[in-house]
């Protein structure tokens, strides 16, 4: 037993310098919270994941190639800390790709230099980075988070803004940042039944300006919906063949005593349904309290138009949301937090919610969705 232990120790000593010399870094986040309250009227209580940041682990590295050029890679795997299972791939991506779901947050390789970075693989689209203009910074209680998911917008800090089979560019030039992406989607080969490999293409562009206390950003994204996936096969969809087009304008200003942040975004022909349009705005404050503690507060409202294949006939639905969080850093890497979310779904019916991708949990199709009211108490640790 002693010889085996000694051998393992010696092996570890030799492996650690090799890992350090290779420039590979292990990093990530572990975030869990206790929740209590109601989601769309259904009572819930228990442990959940990702209150102020996703739980994930990642590997990244780079190699100097000379003349200011570097080879880079990133591999990130999200997981649900309450169950230990992998996560963070959208339902469409999961059903349309065989194999295990490993490194579902990001997985790419690329080149970086003075020109910026060009990478190939599964990457964040520009629309994932809404946090600079969100007082709740994309946290679970954020109104922008809840309402963008409900309305199926692609500009959202969630899985729909992680794109497979993509080529992406990012560049930082003093006060200006640029990001662009093109994704071939999940369909890469023309199908005999008429589906083209371009039927689910995606593309996006983001522009950012940061100068002192001021941040301004603009994002545009488009997702083609000429086909949909069903049981792993691509089939022609019924009436959902438009290109969803999303855009967002956001801004934030740090006054010292508080930071004011807000955004306005629109989605046109959402889910490929002609005439299904969504408007969403939110505004909030980040207020320093004591030391590094902050109180974050935001309010938002969305408008989902009726008279289309998704919402059916009828008038517009205007869900609204309020989110609040108190963050208390215990160290540079560990934060304890308490938060609250409230969502009024207005006159949204369960058949409409189901068409938007929500689980009806046995509710009657013509019944109205009740409010969401959730309390959180959690801990986030970054490593």
UniProtKB/TrEMBL annotation:
It holds the Pfam family Porin_4. Residues 7-347 form the Porin domain. InterPro entries: Gram-neg_bact_OMP, Gram_neg_porin_domain, Porin_dom_sf. GO terms for biological process: monoatomic ion transport. This is Outer membrane protein (Porin). It comes from the Bacteria. It comes from Tepidiphilus thermophilus. GO terms for molecular function: porin activity. Its main location: membrane. Homotrimer. Residues 1-20 form the signal peptide.
């Amino acid at each position: 037993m002693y010889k085996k232990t000694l051998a393992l120790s010696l092996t570890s000593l030799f492996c650690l310098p090799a890992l350090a010399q290779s420039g590979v870094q292990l990093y990530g986040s572990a975030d869990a919270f206790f929740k209590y309250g109601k989601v769309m009227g259904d009572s819930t209580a228990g442990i959940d994941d990702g209150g102020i940041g996703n739980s994930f682990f990642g590997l990244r590295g780079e190699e100097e190639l000379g003349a200011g050029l570097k080879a880079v890679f990133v591999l990130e795997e999200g997981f649900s800390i309450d169950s230990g299972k992998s996560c963070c791939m959208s339902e469409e991506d999961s059903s349309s790709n065989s194999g295990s779901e490993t490194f579902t947050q990001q997985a790419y390789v690329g080149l970086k230099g003075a020109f910026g970075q060009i990478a190939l693989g599964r990457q964040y689209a520009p629309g994932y980075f809404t946090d600079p203009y969100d007082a709740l910074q994309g946290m679970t209680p954020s109104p922008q988070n809840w309402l963008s998911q409900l309305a199926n917008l692609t500009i959202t800090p969630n899985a729909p803004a992680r794109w497979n089979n993509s080529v992406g560019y990012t560049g930082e030039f003093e006060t200006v940042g640029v990001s662009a992406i093109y994704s071939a989607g999940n369909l890469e080969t023309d199908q005999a039944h008429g589906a083209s490999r371009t039927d689910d293409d995606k593309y996006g562009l983001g522009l950012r300006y940061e100068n002192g206390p001021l941040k301004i950003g603009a994002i545009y994204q488009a997702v083609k919906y000429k086909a949909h996936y069903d049981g792993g096969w691509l089939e022609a969809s019924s009436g959902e063949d438009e290109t969803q087009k999303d855009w967002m304008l956001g801004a934030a200003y740090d006054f010292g005593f508080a930071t004011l942040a807000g955004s306005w975004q629109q989605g046109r022909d959402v889910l490929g349904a002609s005439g299904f349009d969504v408007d969403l705005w939110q505004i909030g404050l980040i207020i320093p309290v004591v030391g590094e503690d902050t109180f974050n507060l935001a309010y938002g409202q969305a408008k989902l138009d009726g008279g289309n294949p998704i919402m059916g006939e009828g008038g517009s639905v205007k869900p609204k949301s309020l989110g609040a969080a108190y963050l208390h850093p215990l160290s540079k890497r560990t934060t304890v937090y308490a938060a609250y979310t409230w969502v009024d779904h207005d006159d949204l019916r369960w058949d409409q919610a189901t068409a938007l991708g929500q689980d009806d949990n046995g509710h009657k199709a013509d019944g109205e969705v009740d409010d969401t009211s959730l309390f959180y108490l959690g801990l986030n640790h970054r490593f």
